[in-house]
Amino acid sequence: MESPSAFAYRGCTPQQGLLLTASLLNLWSLPTTAQPTIESVLPNAAKGKEVLLLVNNLPGDLGGYIWYKGEIIDSNLQIVSYEIITKTITHGPAYSHRETMYPNGSLLFQKVTLQDTGYYTLQAIEKMYQKPVRKPALQASNATVTEHKEAVVLTCLSNDTGISIRWLFKNQILSHKDRKKLSQGNSILTIDPVRREDAGGYQCEVFNPINSSKSDPFRLDVQYDPTLPSPGLSDGDIVDIMVGTLIGVVLIAALVCFLCIRETRGTDS
């Protein structure tokens, strides 16, 4: 996730050997005449040596830095982050125990390997993101609905700015597709129509590159008519079941008929 108020830079490792260089990926307006740069120290390092991606001229009013392995800002690709105020270093899923991050945002690779080739992205976080996001509120159009007949609208309410929103169902990130639709900005979740498998606990989570907070759980109760088809069965599935049942009946009848004819012939002989 990338915020328009965060500064992102790319450190590039070409695919030829272990040559490391650094280049600017993107830049928003900065309150300084000095332009941020990333340069590679010992760019021609051999396998097993050290390579430093040195960061220069970053603004002095930042809250922290995050390095990612790859060309996009993705939490699954996070190598390491540094929070300036608390001087806290946090390792991410892409950390290989060979990277060292310095307070100025520079990243040191130790014992480089061919697997280190690729692109690296630096995200510099403004101080505004150092403030913890406040707990959001979840509002529902109805707490009890009837399956196949009604819809439910869930709204995530937050007074924070510069945040993103995601939805959780039974403590798992909600897959929003088909009947589940999100508004622009993800603040409103609509489920139409509701099915019985939609019953359970919902939460919305607001987050920025540094902090996150979840709403209190909301439980949706779904009433259902036992005469209706089982949940998850489409019209095509129901037709397939009926056809399969009919074929089974025909085969059984044919088998009974065959046995009767065989028995009759045996009696006549």
UniProtKB/TrEMBL annotation:
PANTHER family: CARCINOEMBRYONIC ANTIGEN-RELATED CELL ADHESION MOLECULE 1 (PTHR44427:SF1), CARCINOEMBRYONIC ANTIGEN-RELATED CELL ADHESION MOLECULE 19 (PTHR44427). The chain crosses the membrane at residues 241-261. The keyword Iron-sulfur does not apply. It comes from Pipistrellus kuhlii (Kuhl's pipistrelle). CDD domains: IgI_hCEACAM_2_4_6_like (cd05740), IgV_CEACAM_D1 (cd05774). Keywords: Glycoprotein, Immunoglobulin domain, Membrane, Signal, Transmembrane, Transmembrane helix. The keyword Signal applies. This is CEA cell adhesion molecule 21.
